[in-house]
Design a protein that fits this description.
The protein has 178 residues and is mainly β. The protein has one helix and eight strands; from the N terminus they run H-E-E-E-E-E-E-E-E.
């Protein structure tokens, strides 16, 4: 029993000495496709087609990870302001994040599942608000001790009933705060 306690205390001391909590603030440029369904014609000859609109804009946010050495578990909060061709997708989402620090190759792949509120404006003059969910995967590359390049991030965002998916690719900079 004393040996087990000694091992646990030694491991805890080693982890606390080698790891510190990590917070990052990021600014990304995002290009996305907003996929909507368009109905044309009148009954009985109604035509339904999928329309994909290119949207562009910033994604801003911050994350915080627990102090663990290799596998980082934390949370991410972000907002997106995407516009294009008279359509828009704005949202604010947050949720759990998991990342793996690979210091030998200076890469940190991560995955997130985020949820929050979003606003879509398509062909109508009024925007509709919804509860959004978003899946995010990406990889960061360490450039300097406090600066990372978010090499590539893929996000899939939709609102609760799955009618308007937005698929985006992002790149940008992350400032890490020790």
């Amino acid at each position: 029993m004393k040996f087990l306690s000694l091992c646990v205390c030694t491991l805890a001391a080693a982890l606390s000495a080698t790891a510190s909590a990590q917070v990052g603030i990021y600014a990304l440029f995002t290009g996305a496709n907003l996929d909507t369904t368009q109905t044309t014609g009148t009954s009985p000859s109604v035509t339904t087609s999928n329309v994909s609109t290119k949207l562009f804009g910033p994604t801003l946010g911050f994350y915080g990870d627990l102090p663990t050495p290799v596998v980082k578990i934390g949370v991410d909060l972000r907002g997106e302001l995407l516009n294009g061709s008279g359509k828009q997708h704005y949202n604010g989402v947050g949720g759990p994040r998991i990342a793996v620090d690979l210091p030998v190759v200076k890469l940190t792949p991560y995955a997130e599942f985020l949820f929050g509120f979003g606003s879509y404006k398509t062909s109508t003059p009024l925007a509709t608000s919804h509860i959004d969910y978003e899946y995010v995967v990406g990889v960061d590359r360490k450039l300097f001790p406090l600066l990372d390049w978010r090499v590539l991030e893929f996000s899939y965002c939709n609102f609760y009933n799955g009618a308007i998916p937005t698929k985006g690719l992002s790149t940008g900079l992350v400032i890490r705060i020790p």
